[in-house]
Each structure stands twice: as C-alpha cells, then as structure tokens.
Design brief:
The chain folds into two domains: about 45 residues, Roll (Membrane-bound Lytic Murein Transglycosylase D, Chain A); about 150 residues, Muramoyl-pentapeptide Carboxypeptidase, domain 2. About 20% of the residues lie in helices and about 20% in strands. It is built from five helices and nine strands.
C-alpha cells in the first residue's frame, strides 16, 4: 500500500509502525535508509514478513448480458464462480432484474437457477438473455415456483424458443414450460425429477395445455 508522510514522521517511525525494517522500506522506495522524508511524500509500504497475504479475489465466470424486457433495463451479471457455485452478487443482480412487475418487490432467485442460466449462456455465447418474468406475488393461499423465486420466463436473443426449450429439457431436477403462442420459455428449479408441459394459450388467456404437436418438435437455432 502507499501512504503520505505526515508532519513529524521519520523513516524509522514509519517503518516501525508498519512492522518492516528501515532498509526494506527505503529499498522499496529507491531511497537511502538515512534519507530524510518530507511532509506529503508518498511511500510504498512493503508487506511485513510473516504477515498473511490478503485473500485472492474469487474467480468468477464472465458476465452474462441480460435485458429486463418490461423496463428495458440492461445489466451484465456474473452468474457463477469458476467452480460452478452461484455468485452472491450475481444472485442479487438477477433477483433485481427478475423482480415483481406489479409490486416492484424482489425475492432471492434460487442459486441453481443461476447455474442453469450459466449453461444456457455458455451454449449461446455472446447472446443476451431476455427476462420476461421472474418472481411475482401470488394470491393468498396460492404458491408457485415463481412466488418462491425458483422460476424464470425468458428467451435468448436471436435463438428460437424451440431450440431453447430443447436445451433446457436436458437439465436434471428442472421444469420446462413451452408456450408456442407466446415469447418465452419457462424454466424452474425442482427438488427432484423433470417436468415438461406445453401451453397453447396466448398472452392474457387461460391456460390451454396439450401435447407437443409435430410442427413444434423440430429444434432450430
């Protein structure tokens, strides 16, 4: 670290206060050990011998570009660390982007949701993930994966929802909803098993579940 010499300080006093020798302090700054110092002079302080090194910053995967469609709010979010764990700062950022559209409330998104979105981002490198809906407040007595912060409705910019649907269906312990007449794919976190459904309703309509029709089975990029 670097300090500025205060009035009345000497090189030896500064060295002693930081647990280093005068010779090391002088050598670090390219001056003689007997040199006087002046007020305001900048000195680099070497690390004291035996002092613990500061912890290395955590290794994080590259940030993923997001857009919250409802508010046109863009953000670069680090979803996971290099070992695969969800990044706490990224979890907060995604929770903010996925907040309730009506009440502007947030809820922590499930860490495994971030891990799955990381795999989506890696599969389509450089593409923005467009958030349609995440957390939303449920009716009294009604709970869903959206109300629990375990689901997100999204799409990948420039990628068909058919291709996104088929990729998300590879995830274990996850639910995938496909909406041919809407603009998103639903992805949620399950405790176990896989779930998949098709809803042919359009925006604002009551659900119309049905089998996957032949024309909607071909995966396209």
């Amino acid at each position: 670290m670097q300090i500025a010499v205060a009035e009345g300080q000497t090189l030896s006093e500064i060295a002693a206060s930081h647990g280093v020798s005068v010779r090391r302090l002088a050598g670090e700054n390219g001056i003689e050990a007997s040199s006087p110092v002046r007020v305001g002079q900048k000195l680099w302080i070497p690390r004291a011998r035996g002092a613990p090194r500061p912890p290395a910053p955590p290794c994080r995967n590259p940030a993923v570009k997001f857009l919250r469609v409802a508010s046109n709010e863009a953000a670069d979010v680090v979803l996971t660390r290099c070992g695969g764990r969800a990044d706490p700062d990224g979890q907060s950022a995604l929770s903010r982007l996925s907040r309730s559209l009506r009440a502007d409330e947030t809820k922590d998104m499930h860490p495994r949701l971030l891990q799955m979105l990381q795999k989506v981002a890696e599969h389509w490198t450089g593409r923005r993930l467009l958030v349609i809906s995440g957390y939303r407040r449920g009716r009294a007595g009604h709970e869903s994966n959206h109300t629990r912060g375990r689901a997100i409705d999204f799409r990948v910019e420039g990628v068909s929802n058919v291709a996104l649907r088929d990729f998300c269906r590879r995830f274990d312990a996850a639910g995938v909803g496909y909406y041919p007449n809407s603009v998103f794919v639903h992805l949620d976190v399950r405790d176990e098993g896989r779930a998949f459904w098709v809803d042919y309703s359009g925006p604002g309509e009551a659900p119309r579940y049905g089998p996957l029709r032949p024309e909607a089975t071909a995966s396209r990029r």
